[in-house]
Every structure is written in C-alpha cells, then in structure tokens.
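Regression test attached.
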Amino acid sequence: MEDIGQHSAGMDIFANISPIDHRYRQAEAQLWQELSECLSERALIHYQLRVEIAYVRALARRGLLSQQSAEILADAARRVTPEEVYAEEARTQHNIRALVNAVRRHLEGRAPAAGADTAAGPVAPAAGAEALRFLHLGLTSMDVVDTANALRYKDAFDRVVWPRWRRLVESVANLAERESDTPAIGRTHGQYAVPITFGWSLAEYVQRLGERLLKAQAAAHDLRGKIAGAVGCYNAICLLVPDPDQLEEEVLADLGIRPSPVSTQIVAPEYVADLGHALVSGLGVMANLADDLRHLQRSEIAEVREAFGAQQVGSSTMPHKRNPWNSEHVKSLWKAFMPRMFTVYADQISEHQRDLTNSASARFFPELFFAVASAADRLRAVVEGLQVDREAMLRHLREAAPSVVAEPLYILLAQAGHPNAHEAVRRLTLAAESARAQPGVAGTPPTADPAPGAVLAQALCDPDAAPWLARLTPHQREVLEDVLHYRGRAAEKTRRIVARWREALGL
Amino acid sequence: MEDIGQHSAGMDIFANISPIDHRYRQAEAQLWQELSECLSERALIHYQLRVEIAYVRALARRGLLSQQSAEILADAARRVTPEEVYAEEARTQHNIRALVNAVRRHLEGRAPAAGADTAAGPVAPAAGAEALRFLHLGLTSMDVVDTANALRYKDAFDRVVWPRWRRLVESVANLAERESDTPAIGRTHGQYAVPITFGWSLAEYVQRLGERLLKAQAAAHDLRGKIAGAVGCYNAICLLVPDPDQLEEEVLADLGIRPSPVSTQIVAPEYVADLGHALVSGLGVMANLADDLRHLQRSEIAEVREAFGAQQVGSSTMPHKRNPWNSEHVKSLWKAFMPRMFTVYADQISEHQRDLTNSASARFFPELFFAVASAADRLRAVVEGLQVDREAMLRHLREAAPSVVAEPLYILLAQAGHPNAHEAVRRLTLAAESARAQPGVAGTPPTADPAPGAVLAQALCDPDAAPWLARLTPHQREVLEDVLHYRGRAAEKTRRIVARWREALGL
Amino acid sequence: MEDIGQHSAGMDIFANISPIDHRYRQAEAQLWQELSECLSERALIHYQLRVEIAYVRALARRGLLSQQSAEILADAARRVTPEEVYAEEARTQHNIRALVNAVRRHLEGRAPAAGADTAAGPVAPAAGAEALRFLHLGLTSMDVVDTANALRYKDAFDRVVWPRWRRLVESVANLAERESDTPAIGRTHGQYAVPITFGWSLAEYVQRLGERLLKAQAAAHDLRGKIAGAVGCYNAICLLVPDPDQLEEEVLADLGIRPSPVSTQIVAPEYVADLGHALVSGLGVMANLADDLRHLQRSEIAEVREAFGAQQVGSSTMPHKRNPWNSEHVKSLWKAFMPRMFTVYADQISEHQRDLTNSASARFFPELFFAVASAADRLRAVVEGLQVDREAMLRHLREAAPSVVAEPLYILLAQAGHPNAHEAVRRLTLAAESARAQPGVAGTPPTADPAPGAVLAQALCDPDAAPWLARLTPHQREVLEDVLHYRGRAAEKTRRIVARWREALGL
Amino acid sequence: MEDIGQHSAGMDIFANISPIDHRYRQAEAQLWQELSECLSERALIHYQLRVEIAYVRALARRGLLSQQSAEILADAARRVTPEEVYAEEARTQHNIRALVNAVRRHLEGRAPAAGADTAAGPVAPAAGAEALRFLHLGLTSMDVVDTANALRYKDAFDRVVWPRWRRLVESVANLAERESDTPAIGRTHGQYAVPITFGWSLAEYVQRLGERLLKAQAAAHDLRGKIAGAVGCYNAICLLVPDPDQLEEEVLADLGIRPSPVSTQIVAPEYVADLGHALVSGLGVMANLADDLRHLQRSEIAEVREAFGAQQVGSSTMPHKRNPWNSEHVKSLWKAFMPRMFTVYADQISEHQRDLTNSASARFFPELFFAVASAADRLRAVVEGLQVDREAMLRHLREAAPSVVAEPLYILLAQAGHPNAHEAVRRLTLAAESARAQPGVAGTPPTADPAPGAVLAQALCDPDAAPWLARLTPHQREVLEDVLHYRGRAAEKTRRIVARWREALGL
C-alpha cells in the first residue's frame, strides 16, 4: 500500500471508505456532483452561513445594527472556506463557534491570504465590529444546524431527487402506455393466474411511484427550521427583540421554510422522520419493480431484458452471461438503506431539551437522498432500455390457458345457475390434469398438453357442467374459448392511470 | 407441567405464549377486550363476512339476484362461528373458501346444531341456492381479506387507539397548563442549560403527540379496500357487470372506505405502511416523554414521581424502592414494537401480481394497535398521577444560576457594545469556576458555591466587562440578578400550544 | 360481536389477539402445546419457583434452615397456580413478591380451596414459618426472573426447536443425497449459469442449516443465570453466607446452568443476544431455502412442487391454482421475526445497575422460538413431500447448453494456448446469438435455437479458435459436446457434506 | 457554490458526501488512514490482486505454467492502479474483468506511461503471454471478491479494531482497579438501590467488552474464502487440475484463511453475519457504558466529568456548558450502525447459486469497522481522562442511606427469626417517609431528612421489629449503622475480573 499518496486528485477518491465517495462517485458522477452541492460538508457550511446571515439581516431590519454592517457580514461569510472552519474547530472543538470565528477572521482581515481576500482588505473597523457583535447573537448552534439541514434536504430533494424520480415515473408511464394492450399472463405466488396486459403490470408502479413521490415532496416541503434559542423558548432573543416568534417566522420565511410549532434546542424530529419514511417507502416501491423485472428476466421466463452494452462483460468466467445487474442493484440499495429508518426513529428520542446522541447518526441521513436518487436513475435506465419480448409473453399466456380458463368457467357456470360451480370446476381441473399426467418422479410440466381447451373440453362432455354451458351467450363462450378475451379492464385502467399521472406531474 | 389443562377458563390465558394474550390481557383487561373485538380471529371472520355480504347486496341492487336472497345470505353469515370456519379450513387448507363453505352449511341447514340455528331451520331452498351461487362470485380472497383488514384497522384506531391517545394529549395539556409558570431549569446534554418552566417541557409533547395523532388518524381513515379480483383488473367481475370499478367504489363506500387506485391481487401496501409509520413514530414520541419522566424521577433529580399504591411493592428485596416502572414500560413497548416497521417495509415488496410472503408477517400488524393504545393508557396514568415537586425544580434552577447567567450576560454585553462578548464570558465563567474549585481527584460539584451571582460578581469587577455592564438598563440588570426573569416565552407559548390543541381535538 | 363469550373453551382462542395464540395454535397444535409448556406464563411461574426452591435448598445445605423446611416449601411451591399469583400481583403490583406471597398462602393454609390442597391441610407451623423466612431471602427478583428465563429458553430450544431443526437437516440431507446425481442447471442472477446437480443445490442448505443449528445449540447451552442480588455484588447474600459466589455456582449448577461472570441486577445481556442472533440467522437460512423452492415452483420453471392435498383449495376464485404457500409462509416468518433482533440489541443497553426498559420487550423474546420451530416444521414438510421433476431439470439444462458451453470452451482454449480466450469466446457467443436473432420488438427467447452445439459450431469454423480446439483431448471435447459432463464435483461434494452432517448430528 | 473546485487537495474531502470521508476523516485522521489502507477501493483492488496471484502461483506449483510467468504476473499486478481499473470498468461494466484487463495492459506494456513503468518496459512476450492465459483462469469474480473481502476484513479487525478495542478494555480495567474500593450508590431504575463501588460499576464493562472482543476476534479469524468457481462445485477448475478442493485449501492457506465448507457462487454468508453480530453487539456494550457515563455527568449527579480542553467551547450561546459530547457520540454511532445488521441479515438470502442483490449493500459493510474502532477510541479517551468526584459519590451514598438500610434490615430481621420481615420493613420505610414528608404539591426530595438512621431509628422503637434487632451480632449491627459496610463483594470481584482480563488480553 506504499503508493497511497502518489496520485493527487484521484487519490482522495480511491482512498475513501464510503462506496458513495469512491465507487458511486465514479460511476454516477453527475448525480454525485449534484448531491455534493447540497449535502457535502462544504455545502453544509454555506447553508449554515445563509442562516446566520438571514438572522442578522432581520436584526438589522429591526434596527439593532445597520443594514451596511449586515451586508459586510454577508460578504465576509461568502469568503469562508471549510478548511478555515475545520482548522478553527480543531482548536475550539465546537463546529458552530468555529464557523463564527472563521467569519470573524475574514472581517478582521486575519483570514489566510487568498488572492481575492487580500485585495478586499479588512473591512471598515466600525461596521465590521458591529457586524461581529450581532453575528449569531441570541442563536444556539442548533438554530443554525437544524435550519440549514432543513434547507439543504429540501434543496437536495427538489434539485436532485425530484427530477430523477419524476423521470422514472415518466418512463414507466411511457412503457405502460405503449404496452397497455400487450397480452400477458398475471402471476400470483409465482404461478400463472389470469390474463393481464404487460402495461397493467407497470401501471401499478406508475400509481405507487407517483403517490410516493408526492408524499416525499410534501414531506420535503414541510421540513421546519427554528430560531428559538438554547431550549426553544427564546430566552436570549427576548433580550434583543420584543417579538421573538415573529422574528423566527420572518427569518425562516426569508429562507423559504416555516418554523417548527414547538422546538427544544432542536426542531421536533418528526418532520425529518416523515421525509425518511416517504423516501424509504418510495425506495421500497422501486425495489418491488426491480424485483419484478429481475424475475421477468429469468432464463426460463425471459419476457424482458435489460439493455446490454456491446463491450459489456456479464461474467468474468461465463462469457455468455447477461445479468439483470441494474435491477439487482436497486434491490440492493433498498437492503442497504431501508434499515436506516431505525436510526431516524431512534433519533426521535432526545432527553429533556435535547441530548446530543444524534450527533453522528443524523450526519448519515443525507445518504438516503443518494440511495433514492441513484435507484431512480438506475431503474429509469432499465425501463427506458427494456427489451420486451411480446412473443414470449403471449406464449406464456397460451401455456397458461388450459388452467386459466377455470376462473371464467366457474363464474359463468355459477351465473348460469350451476349450484356449486367452484367445486365443479375444481374437479374438472383435476380431471384435466390427471388426463395429461405422465409417469415419473414428479408432476408433468405445464406445457405437456398445449391444448388450450383441455378444461373446457372436459366441461363440455361433463354431465354436471354441460347443461349450464349450453346457456351461455356467444360472447361468454368466446371468453372460454380464447383467454385473450379475459383481460378485464387491464388496458383501460392502465391508460387511465397513465393519464392521471401525466397530469399530476406535468409529464 | 402435568397440571396444564386442569383449569378450564383460566388455563387458556396462562397457557398462551404471547404476553399480549396472557400478561397484558390480565393487566389491561378493558383494553384487551376492546382490541379483541376488532382484531381477534373471531372479529376478523365477522369483518370478512361483512365484505362478502356488502358485495352480494351490490349484485342484488344490480339485479343479478333477488334482494331477498342477499338478505338470507346475510342472515346465514351472521350465524357463522370461527369454530366452523377453522374446522372447514382444516379440510380445504384455504381460509376464505372455508368461510364460504361455512356460510353454505348454514344456508343448507347442515351447520352444527346450535339452539338458535335449529330453530331457524334451513332456508327456503330456491333463495338459498341463488344466494349461494353469488356468494363470493367474482371475488378473490384478497378482496375480502384486505378490505376486512382496512375496516378493522380503521375501527381499532377509531374505537380503541384514538380515544386513549386523545386522552393522553388532554392529560399532558392539563398538566402543561397547570405548570405553565412553574420555574425549572432546562437541560441539554443532561446539563443545566437555561431556565424554562415545567409546563414548557410538557408543551413540546402536547404539540408532538397531537400532530402524530392527527397523522395517524389521517392514515387510518385513508386505508383502502379492493373489489378487483385475482390480479386487480376485474377479470371475473367483468363477466357479471359492465361497470366493475363503479361496483368496487359502491361496495366499499357501503362499508365506509375507498378503493385503492391500483390493486394487484392485493391493495397497494403503502396505505398500511403510512399507518404503521404514524403509529410507530407516535409511539416514539410517547417513549421520549416516558424517558424524560424516568430521568426526572432519578433519585438525585426527583422533580417528579409516579403515583404509588399503598400496597405496591417496589422491589422484592429492597423494600424502600419506588421505581418509575410505568414510564419504563412505555419505553420498553417502543423497543419491542418500533422494529416491526421493518416487517411493514419488507411487506411492500410482493412479486408480480403478488406473492404470499406476507402471509404470516401481516398477521402481526394488529399488535401495533395494542402497543400504541397500551403505551397511551400507561403514560396517561403516569401523567395524571404525577407528583410534581416544584421546590426541587426551583432548587435546581437556583443551583444552575451561577453558570446559567453566562448566556444573558454574553447577550447583553454584546448588545451593549462589547466587541467579543462570548469569549469574554467564557473566560469569566472559567475564572468563577476555578475560584470555587477545591483540590481532590475530580472537579468540584456544581453546588459547592451556591452564590447565584458568582459569574456576575466576577464580571462586575472585571476591567474588560464592567464598563459595558454599566450601560445596562435596570430591567436588563434584573435578568442577570435573578435567572427567574430569564425564562423567555416559555409560559406564553405553553398556553398557546395548549389552547391550540384543545381546539384541534375538542378537548 | 355480541356473541363473544358464548363458547367457553374455544372462545379464548378465537378472542386472542396474537396469531400465535389463535391461528397457529390451531394449525400447529402440537408445536404450540410443547412451546406453551416451556414459555407460557404458567410455565414461567413454575420455572421461577424452581429457582426459588433451588436457592432455599442450598441455604438448607449450609444449615441456615432445616432440610425438612426446604422440602415443605418445595411442596407448597408445587401447588401454586398462576391464577393465585396474578390475583396477588393485582394487589402488590410486583410479580415476584406476588409469587412469594402465593407460596406463603399455601404454607399458611390460606390458599383457595382446591381438592388436593385442602386434603393436605396447612403444614406444621414451625417448619412452615422457617421456610417462609428463607424463601427468596437475599435474592432480588431478577435473580429469579433471569435464571428462570435461561432455564426455559434452554428447555424450549432443546425440547422443541432442536428436534424440529435437526429433522429439517435430516430431510434436506436425505433429499440432497437422493438427488446428488440429478443433472440441473445452476442459476446465478436468475440466469442459467453452468451445470450442477439438484442435490448440490440442497447440500448448501445441509451445511448452512447444520452449522447454524450447532451455533444455536451452543448459545442455548451457554445461557447464564445469576444469584447475586440487587446490584450483582451479593450485598444481601453476604449477610447470610461467607461464600456468595460459590453459593451462586452451586444453585445454578443444581439447575443445570452456569452463572454470568458479571451481573448487575441482571445477567449480562449478551448471552441472550447470541442466542437471538443464532436463531435469527438460522431462520434466515430457512428463508433462503424457502425462496429457492418458491422460485423453482414458478409456472415457467416448475422443477419442483409442494405436495398438495386432494381436498385443498388453491384459490378462492381460481380453482386451478397450486401455490407454494408453505415456502411463502417460511419467508414470511422471517420477515416478521428477523427485525426483532433490533429489540434484543436495544435491550443490551440498561442504565447503571439496570433500568427496567426491557420489561415488555424481553417478554416477546420467547416468540422467536415459535418462529424458528414453526419454520423448521413447515419447511421439513415441504422438503419431505417435494415432487421433483427431473425431466424439467434436464430440459432446462439442455436449453442452457448452447450458451453454457462458453465457460469450458474459454477455459480449454486458454489452457490449449489461446492468448485471449475470454474475449474470443465472448465474441463467439454474441455471434451465435445474433445468428439466432429474429426481428421484433425484443430479443429472441433462449429456446429459439435449441441446437446445443451453436457456440461450439461457431467456434469450430472460427479461424481464430479452431486451431486451438484441434489440440483438445477427446475427454476435453466430450465436455464441450455434452454439458452433462461439466458438473464439476457437485455429486461428490454433496455426498461428502451429507455424510459429514449425518455424523455430526447422529442422523 | 461557485467555488467548488478551487482547492485541489482539500476539495475532495469537503465535497464528500459520507461523514466518514469528510468529518471523521479530519477529526480522526489516524484511524481513517489505517482503515483506508484495508478498506478503501484502492486497498480492495490490491487485495483482489493478491488473490489472483496466489491462485496463479498454485497453478504454477502444479506445473500448468512456469514459476517465472507467475512472478511476472505478480510484478505486473503490483503496478496496477485503481484509476486504470476504473477506466477499464467504464468500458466493460464488470469490475473483475476490468481488473484482469488492467493487469494485461501492464504485461503488454500498454499501461499509461508512468515513470517506473516505462522504465520496466513490456515483459518478455512468451512468459507474459503464458501468465496472461492463466490469470483468473477457472475463477469466477466472486472467488476473488469474497476471498479479498475476508482478507481485508480480517486485516481491518486485527490491525485497526483489535488494538483500539483492547486498549479500551485496558483503560476501563485500569480505572476499575483504581476505583475498586471507591464507595458509591448502586442505581436500579435510576433510583438509589444498595451500595457498590465505582470500580464495580466498571468491572461489568471490563467483562462484557472483553468477552465481545474475543467473540469478534474469533469471528474475524473464522472468515472464509472460496476458490470454487461459478456455482461452487469447481466446474471450470476441474478442467485444469484433478484435485480442485485441495487447490482451494492451498490457495487460501497461502493467503491465511480457510475455505467455506460450502459455496455457491459466493461464500456462505453466515461467517460475515457472525462478525457483524459480534461487532454490533460490541458496539452495544460501548453504547451502554457511554450512556452510564452520560448520566453520571448530569448536573444533578456530577460524579464524573469528561476532560475538557482549555480552548474548548461547550455551547455557541451558553458559554458555561461542559457537555458529555464524546459519550453522546458513542451512543450516536450505535444508533447509526446497529440497524445495519438488518442489511447483513437480508444479505443472507441469495437466490439459487446467488443473485446479485448484495451488490451495493455488501459494499457498506466495511463502515462497521469504522464505527466500532471510532467508538472504542472515543470511549477510551473519555475513560482515560475521566474526572472522578469521589466526594460526590460518597455524598450520594450517604443520601441514600436512610432508605438503603431497608434491605439489610429486612435480611437480618428475617435471619434473626422475624416471621414476615419484608412486609415489616416496607411498613417501617413508609412510616419513616411520612415522618419526613412536608405539605406541598409533590413528595419531598430524598435529601430532606439527611439522618442516615431514620429507618433504623424507626425500627429500634417499633414493638414488632425491636425484639429481633436485639438478637443481631455487633457486626450485623454495624452494617445497619453504616451502609459503607454493605458493599457485598464489589471490590474483590472487581479486582478478580480485572486480573482475569489482564491475563486474557495480555494487558
């Protein structure tokens, strides 16, 4: 490992421990970059400074300091770098006090000499001093930390997660619509059930993904901040202004959010918990779709297939492999990130006006945005490039026909007046099966007798069933003779759902 | 263990394996009974039959069978017992087909001779036969199971959870209001922070518990049913009626709920997941309050105490113990039930038009209602019987005064014009501390110097601080001289929050 | 719901809330009964009394009281019923003090008149009084509770879980051996990989289930008790005997377990956590096997099938359905119970010499035994009744042959001297594929070209590959011509694993 | 955010998303560096190449290629950089094939021109070509990935986790020994229980941390590798050597580990799960100790205090604050990482010969090493710098005395012959309490009556108790008169435990 340190820029990446910051940073560079701009430590410091500035400006509007001083402060804050803050924190061991001190250094002209900075020179002493006195005055660290977190989580959702998730809904909707009429066999318990269309099996996800997306957006937009001091009841701010809760609302409105109706040292944790739930349950729906696509790609089913690059290698030893690895990846992200809700739930509990036992745990919350955005991207790519084998779908539907007919047969017999149709059809099915059965260790595969009319044939010559069958209308007989006619409202409802979500999301 | 079986009625309880059905059934009999009426297997069967009947009635309204037949069926369904259903299931190994067969037996007069039944005799053959033909016709089991679950979960919430949780909010609100002015010391990190009132520390919970309650109610009332057949696209129902989705809406409206906008064989799982989240996060708030009350009962703090029965034993070996066991129990319920959200999240994933891998897991969901209702009851009893030691609160506040004054001192110095007040006060505090410090292995306890004015005294003779102090107004000095004046908006905001929730919940 | 209460014995079951105590009590009556004898509240009380008696006997051996008094006490303890204990607890609100008082009542002849009791009459006053003085003297409740839990968990494992799990290993081993030579296609990513035997796919589970079983047994046998008093350092017992830790060892040895090397009020929680981990990870292996069996039963694969009763109903609406519901159930138990490890981990944390925040949570731990034993039973039944379709397995293997040959072709080409065999074969595979491809929306299904020699044929006329192929030995060519020869050591290793576990578990 | 990109080296850190790779990389640089050397992507690639080389060397020993060729390969492998591998993977989308291709480039002299590389020039064509043919031949990616993971996890444990955890045990042992005689009050339910020594409260953690450490070591040393091919039964390797399982053992022994007794495409997942459990449950013990230290630092208790730097800032607004933030951090790490066991449990399930749904989830497993090592470091620093206030401990013990005496009084009365001592003392305690009680809203604080002999005094003039008290020996009376004599075996057992772990860990 002696060579660690040789490669300057790249080194940092490959030396990182979190896969987010090495593997996925490489593989999903654009996503990583966008998230970094909201969620990195660098970004965090900028968001925190925005809160500090918004507060000082509100104090200036109330006349506690001059507007000019507030703007001088804003200017200094913009020049603060994370490097300075961390250097200061190494000394004070307090992150927000370090932030304040870093601004102070810029105002006092003591910041490390960078080109622009030196040019600017130290600010006018008087205004700078006034600015410094009011910087963070009356706030507690968590006013800044929790408010900044709300802001960056909201931005991360709006800028990074929302557009990707929305495009995922769009892609699934497009495919659902295109395949709204494609006959396929429905599967329950992994067994052939009754006919659907392939589009119908996707419409489910248009609806569920769309609903979760709106739920997540609502939660992201309902994140709250606080400007309420050390224990939430404005002790210090009361010394500065007569209307601390109006001030709180005003500062937060300026930043684009609302205050928590109650705070201790921290914002009530349920707003973040609701967002966590929406993200994690959304990831669950993506994992469900990924699982369905994985299984439809099984060699024996092979109704769909992920696109595969010409240069791509499926296996290091089995050159023929074409694995559904993107779908697998989405499921895997769910396994990695869903359990993190328990951290969120555990962080609901904070003793008295707060303990700090969320100091490390809350720092990992932003990784949820990565998980959801990455899963959405990956799944969208799968859906957009999905190869659909309509013939395979039809073949499976036809394979299923001999037994599928059991349901409409039972319904129509009952409707026609048969006194115990379910039992009658159950017996007919067993009879049709044993007619096909062959000797051997095991049962016979479902394709052994491809005659789609096996059960129906059995029924037509069954003394119990035949009289009732005779009463069916031609249209009813059609359903029994070709299961393609037995697809319910699959196509119509698919199109209705697609239309609903196109409208809801402006697709 | 040879005597198991001797005691008839009691035996069943003490032989049970789940603590819900032995220990808590005894200890919380009324709660258990109410939950049993919604959530037991007996109740489940009744709810499922309600769905079957509502469906047949809708078919009757459309003329597929006579209204009389539908009512004959309803009548038979009312007489079905779980014992019959289970006996039938032992044969068919299918629970809903067993249900249907049990109704059939009552209609055919073959049900086991019970007084009322024999009296009624078998129903008129024709109407009975017609009823039987349409019973469950076109439905899949999960139409009945999922819809019945939505109904009983909604009932369990409305009838059992809501009133208890609401009473909990009421009790906390009452106590918060009564103690809205009671001076107390705020605590962050378990350390004295700045003054609050005891009511303020409860107002937090009024707000958080109230919000979660409304969230849970919204989720409970948004549970959905389905009448959409084997794979959700109405294949079978289409053979009976031309408007299957209208029929679905109508049947469900009759039962008091709405359809899932999309179903496969099952209702989209997110509605139950949202309820799970609301319940579990509500339980988290209860656990947080319980933790606070536990700690306030620590021997060294002893600001509050759970009521204690005259006959009650605290410890089997330490006769003097008075343990906060109800608060502990609430925390423990959270530890037991919060992780079950993992099951709920895992059950979001069901392959294709469903797999059955939620067969056992979903059956444990109802236990969440027990957990939340029991925690609410227990916590309410703690809050209602809470002994509050206002003198201890005041004593701790006065103990904290010497150091607490640091915050207002810093704020006022800065406001008065001191250029670096935070650092100045940090130094003054250390100086005041070292003045009190005594030799020994460790630091000196905070009560060593009870003089509330230590830091202030230090400041008044500090050449750096004194000039700025001289500029303070009398009112500002008051705050520094007696921390009781430094309680921010604790009392006002407490009363505002209490009023808000009184109105919101009609308390 | 008016009829609740009518059916005496049955009522209790159907009114229960936990599915363990209604549904599974019915469906798995023998298992439920056996577990109840270790884990019910009735059983718990008996186990706790065993601890109390073992302690008093040890005191008697040291001469603090007469052996006769100790036996009188043992006799009285045997007559205590849970009903009495609960009645007493309703008064004292302390469960162990209630237990002690219940024994007292029997000794004093004040117990409720039951036949046997009255006959016995009150015991001789002197011996009874002496016995009473020493009952529980020096113990804390948790000495009794934690020790009793260790005993009953050990018994539940040894008597209920171990035999079922062992029989499961046996069944899987039998099937693995029987099918050790059965050719099948291996699957990775749900895609055809290279050949295995069906037995090989089961040998994996023989090994993993066997290992976990031994791990669970080791953990169950390493559960610990304590006889160490209120805070673990024998304060009270020191007043009675000079060698409290020897006494602790002796009492526990008498009961068949060892002491925790350190206790506070409670046994160190890691022993139970280790058992929890072994059970949960064992359940995970069962769920994995269940998943494999579920997927092998998919309609399109249909290589195996769960046995199906002649009367059994697969679907309430689709009379043809044969669902893998037992395998699904096992997976579902895993989803329900795996998350409970979170509770176990959370219960590791207990403040100072203990808090009681495990009061409710630890009471649910016994349900884990149900989950594992039930899953083992269910899975064993599936395996024992499994219908194996060897022809389907062979058919899939042959379907896979054209592409499967890629791996040995690459290996043999490289070995023969081809300089870049992996890349060469990857290209040959793509060529063979595009030769089969047909126009259409999607790719062509894998069965389109059933010629097993497609890739090989391509290779034989490929100028790059052919020369190297010419160098292969006849045996090497054989592997390429029939993939049945390419099964590695599947059969041998299967038999070796089966033999190893037969020996290890004495099967 | 326009300035992202300006600062070259630092930028990468502050742009990272994972707190491990920005915040903790800064704050715990040494730990981060050591972990990076085992767990980074750079390290992973080196470990994977070690596996490839070990395999080729084993083939060379069997004569399939020359030893010289194998060493040429080893040489080329050492020159591979992660940058090259990732560039290749971007093309092939397969990480292990990319690795192989990167080595190929070095052998063929096509690697990007770096100084040393160009100097070396391309290797002799013949040997290089031979080497290339056997590189990875017969292996599947997961042979390399899983084996490399086992190796680096073992190294990460041995090199990074073990020494830190061991030092933690040492520090706690040292403190426990030093404080083995320090009188303190035991606490159960947060209430004063009976006396202990402070050392005793730490001995618990010496034992529990020591046991978990050995458990984790055993699990780390029991991690397994595999050299068994695509589905675990050596299909490809069989074509090269006649003894594939011996080869597997040999290659792995060369690397220092053993094979999994059964593999599919992957190693049986339980070995990693056992390590996960040991790490997570060890972290749980650390969190428990951290919680205890947090609470002992509460302002009202203040028996211990974390060391505090002279420059350190406790609060950005409350200059007087001294928060137990390191202890809080340890608890928080537990909340963040404990839930990840569910990912580990979920990854036990892999369909058939494997699915890839652990592709992302398993990549986060290494972060557990960070969590445990960081928590151990942090906690050790707390323990080593802990300020212990023995006077405060004694003061609390004396405060507790009046009620604490209840237990020995009850024991001694019973031993002396009192027929119902527990009840007698319970009543005496209530009487002593009501004697102290004062009017007010709440009960009276425990310090109201500091007379240590209150209950004893009450007993001495109680007609029921006094006669029995008269029988006590002087030594017995001593215990009642001064609770310092009622510390059980706390000191002796503390020293015994410390000695045991000094020996076990060679401290």
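Expected vs. actual: identical. The CA atoms of residues 212 and 438 of chain A lie 49 Å apart.
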